[in-house]
């Protein structure tokens, strides 16, 4: 294993990872901070790049450091940084936008065409000893929030962004397809926002059992039927949703779930797609139009989402520790990736490197 100044876990090619010694990154301007990475969570996108070498238009063409769900400790700061100091513990928001386009100026920097997002080719990720970010993309963690919780801020921010797009309100019913980390965190945020009925749908009973203890008020096993219409009707009948749910969120990317999400909604309901799946699917467009549904896509997170995610954890509104099912040393990073690939547990963390 690499033991130099900045050991890094690098994807060299499809299914080819290695530890490399890389230079300690330098501050690019006087508003940057240098962070020692303490904990990094493994995302499904990391595993996908490892196994397939690309996601959509983002194709691996050169070795790339993996990882983007990180928390760490500030080592040094640029001369103009006043919000952070060495020793502060932070959650890293791992994308740097151009700050100049209309999307950036409007707070929707997740849509910036020039976004430099960690562990998305060609940009290196944060699964290394050191990483540099602008100070305003580091959210300071309160004393009672752990670094492990800090690493869960990234996927929680995805859930926060989804809940904002769905406009989840107190007393509403929300059906969430997919009981992976993002789906579970969408459920947790929906609960924090006051949703009255939160139905989580999956085909894995162990994940549904966890969802029922975590944030769902009801769970539904999607193996009930191969027909999305039948499943949608069963959900409405079993959980007293009447004419349908107020909001539906797909965090699975599975076409039958997307279809069921449209069928399960009431007239005028809102559907948000956050899970990635096949590029093209069969979509119930007549159902969507006839019920005058609001249909939205959700991509990463935008202005205020990271800060709100930290505040939800700090206030005890969302609990994330129980999602952590695996902890690995940096030198065992490939084993951690294999565990995630095999679908063992929910969220796997990698410590260090020391």
UniProtKB/TrEMBL annotation:
Keyword field: Metal-binding, NAD, Oxidoreductase, Zinc
Keyword Repeat: no
Classification via InterPro entries: ADH-like_C, ADH-like_N, ADH_Zn_CS, ER, GroES-like_sf, NAD(P)-bd_dom_sf, SDH-like
Any one Gene Ontology molecular-function term assigned to this protein's record: zinc ion binding
Swiss-Prot/TrEMBL cofactor(s): Zn(2+)
Domain Enoyl reductase (ER): 12-350
One example of a Gene Ontology biological process annotation: sorbitol catabolic process
Pathway(s) of this molecule: Carbohydrate degradation; L-arabinose degradation via L-arabinitol; D-xylulose 5-phosphate from L-arabinose (fungal route): step 4/5
Enzyme Commission no: 1.1.1.9
SUPFAM superfamilies, sorted: GroES-like, NAD(P)-binding Rossmann-fold domains
One Pfam family cited in the UniProt record for this chain: ADH_zinc_N
SMART domains reported for this sequence: PKS_ER
Family: Belongs to the zinc-containing alcohol dehydrogenase family.
Functional description taken from the UniProt entry: Xylitol dehydrogenase which catalyzes the conversion of xylitol to D-xylulose. Xylose is a major component of hemicelluloses such as xylan. Most fungi utilize D-xylose via three enzymatic reactions, xylose reductase (XR), xylitol dehydrogenase (XDH), and xylulokinase, to form xylulose 5-phosphate, which enters pentose phosphate pathway.
Protein's name according to its UniProt entry: D-xylulose reductase
Organism lineage string: Eukaryota, Fungi, Dikarya, Ascomycota, Pezizomycotina
């Amino acid at each position: 294993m690499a033991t130099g100044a900045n050991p890094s876990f690098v994807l060299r090619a499809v299914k080819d990872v290695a530890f490399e010694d890389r230079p300690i990154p330098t501050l690019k301007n006087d508003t940057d901070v240098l962070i020692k990475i303490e904990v990094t969570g493994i995302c499904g996108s990391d595993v996908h790049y490892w196994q397939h070498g690309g996601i959509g238009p983002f194709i691996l063409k050169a070795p790339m450091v993996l990882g983007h769900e990180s928390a760490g400790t500030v080592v040094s700061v640029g001369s103009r940084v006043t919000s952070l100091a060495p020793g502060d513990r932070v959650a890293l928001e791992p994308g740097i936008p151009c700050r100049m386009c209309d999307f950036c100026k409007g707070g929707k920097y997740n849509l910036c065409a020039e976004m430099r997002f960690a562990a998305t080719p060609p940009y290196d990720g944060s699964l290394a000893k050191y990483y540099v970010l602008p100070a305003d993309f580091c959210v300071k963690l309160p004393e009672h929030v752990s670094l492990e919780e800090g690493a869960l801020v990234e996927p929680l921010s995805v859930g926060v962004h989804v809940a904002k797009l769905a406009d989840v309100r107190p007393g509403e019913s929300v059906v969430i397809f997919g009981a992976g980390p993002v789906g579970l965190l969408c459920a947790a945020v929906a609960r924090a926002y006051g949703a009255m009925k939160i139905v989580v749908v999956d085909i894995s009973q162990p994940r549904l059992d966890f969802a029922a203890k975590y944030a769902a008020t009801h769970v539904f096993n999607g193996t009930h039927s191969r027909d999305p219409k039948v499943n949608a009707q069963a959900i409405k009948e079993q959980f007293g949703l009447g004419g349908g749910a107020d909001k539906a969120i797909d965090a699975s990317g599975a076409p039958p779930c997307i279809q069921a999400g449209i069928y399960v909604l009431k007239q005028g309901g809102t559907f948000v797609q956050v899970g990635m799946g096949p590029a093209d699917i069969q979509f119930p467009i007549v159902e969507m139009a006839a019920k005058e549904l609001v249909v939205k896509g959700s991509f990463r997170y935008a202005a205020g989402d990271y800060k709100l995610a930290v505040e939800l954890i700090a206030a005890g509104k969302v609990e994330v520790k129980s999602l952590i099912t695996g902890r690995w040393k940096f030198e065992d990073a490939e084993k951690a990736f294999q565990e995630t690939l095999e679908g063992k547990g929910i969220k796997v963390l990698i410590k260090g490197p020391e």
